């Protein structure tokens, strides 16, 4: 899952999950608080309210039938009612025998209808802020009336208000603490999961950077996620591979460069040593006849020409290597170009001990885009290589040209000794010779096939070597579809 989507879902869950849990838990807490405070309020009403006083008067009334009516007894019972906020009035045949009513109580009673108070019925009456509980019994043919009066319910209301406030504060405090814990817990879990999904690839990238810093490029970025980091880790691994290839290429380049320097040193030292030897012979008078001096001069000149040719090849190789060589491409007919080259080369290489044969099976209208001069150089370099390594006095080279899909295939095959299979790919390395000791300086500079590879690749083609009862150099060149155009680079 993408990190962006994961963050959106996580943020939604951070809102929804705590909200659901808070509502559920708050409902449960409310139920518990309601039960607790309901009992408390009911208890308050039972112990200090109307129901308690009514029960107390009924019980006391029953006991009066069996005990003497004394003022001490009424005072004690009155104190009990006072705890509930009520005052007591006891009358016998409407004559007061005990009273602890206040002026406020009397004033409140005076506002009630007289028939309500004079009735012999028991009653519970609440009018406005006045609570009145009456019970009448008959004892010794006398009507005994117990009247409990509470002039104001302010005390109960204050109690109720206090209880409600206590309930609200306690409930909201607990709900707030629970909500805070739920939010912290939920956000902690979700944030931890999101953080792990980010930290894990970051740690992997950090590990990769550390490995690269230490020079280890053989590790792999094995990230199995499918989020944005998957592409980052994949690109990082591609960078590692490219860097590894670059390092290997650099090492190979350095190796080739060392071989290049060694080759240059050797191939320059050999003719220089020869030149120095013959010049010393001239200087010391060894060449004491005109014929010897002429031969010495000829040898010195030829060695200087060899050195000049080597320097030219080095210069060409350098420009090809740096990509600064100017090619001049032209559209030419495949049959005409190779036929022309063969006609010019057959006599030249016959004088070097090489018999050339030519076969071209391409259609007459096949066109190729080439730099004519540089492609001639490639063909000459390959033939010169066959001349150097021929094992017979007169070697044979077959030039075969064929068409395959959108390419032409050029195969130049000699009947020489061939090359060891493990060395085939190294033929195109600069200054490479199978004669690793380089004991035969007459075998060339070792740059010919390397230069040929650069030129063929610049033409969009490929070049390779095969063993086919001798050495075969195979070149592929793309067929051009644009007649008459001239390309320059």
TrEMBL record:
Residues 196-248 form the HAMP domain. Keywords: ATP-binding, Cell membrane, Kinase, Membrane, Nucleotide-binding, Phosphoprotein, Transferase, Transmembrane, Transmembrane helix, Two-component regulatory system. Residues 263-481 form the Histidine kinase domain. The chain crosses the membrane at residues 12-30, 168-190. It holds the Pfam family HAMP. Gene3D superfamilies: 1.10.287.130, 6.10.340.10, Histidine kinase-like ATPase, C-terminal domain. One of its GO terms (cellular component) is plasma membrane. It is an enzyme of class 2 (transferase). It catalyses: ATP + protein L-histidine = ADP + protein N-phospho-L-histidine. Its EC number is 2.7.13.3. GO terms for molecular function: ATP binding; phosphorelay sensor kinase activity. It is found in: Cell membrane. InterPro entries: HAMP_dom, HATPase_C_sf, HATPase_dom, His_kinase_dom, HisK_dim/P_dom, HisK_dim/P_sf, HssS/ArlS-like, Sig_transdc_His_kin-like_C. It is a multi-pass membrane protein. PANTHER family: SENSOR HISTIDINE KINASE CPXA. This is histidine kinase.
């Amino acid at each position: 899952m993408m990190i962006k989507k994961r963050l959106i879902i996580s943020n939604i869950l951070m809102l929804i999950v705590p909200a659901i849990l808070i509502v559920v838990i708050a409902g449960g807490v409310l139920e518990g608080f309601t039960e607790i405070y309901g009992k408390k309020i009911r208890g308050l009403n039972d112990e200090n309210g109307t129901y308690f006083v009514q029960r107390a008067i009924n019980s006391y009334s029953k006991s009066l039938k069996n005990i003497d009516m004394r003022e001490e007894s009424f005072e004690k019972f009155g104190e009990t009612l006072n705890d509930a906020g009520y005052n007591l009035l006891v009358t016998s045949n409407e004559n007061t025998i005990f009273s602890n009513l206040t002026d406020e109580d009397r004033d409140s009673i005076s506002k009630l209808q007289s028939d309500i108070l004079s009735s012999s019925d028991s009653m519970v009456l609440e009018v406005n802020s006045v609570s009145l509980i009456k019970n009448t019994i008959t004892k010794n043919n006398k009507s005994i009336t117990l009247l409990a009066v509470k002039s104001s319910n302010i005390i109960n209301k204050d109690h109720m208000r206090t209880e409600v406030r206590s309930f609200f504060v306690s409930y909201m405090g607990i709900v707030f603490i629970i909500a805070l814990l739920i939010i912290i817990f939920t956000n902690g879990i979700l944030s931890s999961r999101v953080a792990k999904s980010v930290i894990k690839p970051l740690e992997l990238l950090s590990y990769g950077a550390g490995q690269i810093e230490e020079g280890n490029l053989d590790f792999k970025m094995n990230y199995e996620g499918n989020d944005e980091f998957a592409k980052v880790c994949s690109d990082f691994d591609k960078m590692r591979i490219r860097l590894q290839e670059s390092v290997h290429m650099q090492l190979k380049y350095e190796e080739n460069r060392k071989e290049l320097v060694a080759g240059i040193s050797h191939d320059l030292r050999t003719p220089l040593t020869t030149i120095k030897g013959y010049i010393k012979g001239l200087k010391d008078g060894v060449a004491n006849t005109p014929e010897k001096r002429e031969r010495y001069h000829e040898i010195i000149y030829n060695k200087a020409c060899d050195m000049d040719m080597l320097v030219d090849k080095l210069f060409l190789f350098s420009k090809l290597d740096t990509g600064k060589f100017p090619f001049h491409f032209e559209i030419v007919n495949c049959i005409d170009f190779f036929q022309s080259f063969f006609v010019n080369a057959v006599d030249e290489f016959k004088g070097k001990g090489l018999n050339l044969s030519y076969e071209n099976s391409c259609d007459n209208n096949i066109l190729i885009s080439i730099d004519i001069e540089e492609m001639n150089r490639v063909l000459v370099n390959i033939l010169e290589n066959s001349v150097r390594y021929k094992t017979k006095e007169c070697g044979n080279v077959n030039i075969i040209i064929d068409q395959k899909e959108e390419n032409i295939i050029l195969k130049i095959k000699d009947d020489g000794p061939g090359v060891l299979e493990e060395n085939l790919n190294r033929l195109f390395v600069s200054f490479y010779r199978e004669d690793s000791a380089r004991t035969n300086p007459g075998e060339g500079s070792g740059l010919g096939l390397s230069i040929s590879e650069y030129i063929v690749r610049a033409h969009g083609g490929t070049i390779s070597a095969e063993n086919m009862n001798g050495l075969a150099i195979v070149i592929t060149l793309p067929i051009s579809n644009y007649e008459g155009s001239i390309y320059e680079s």
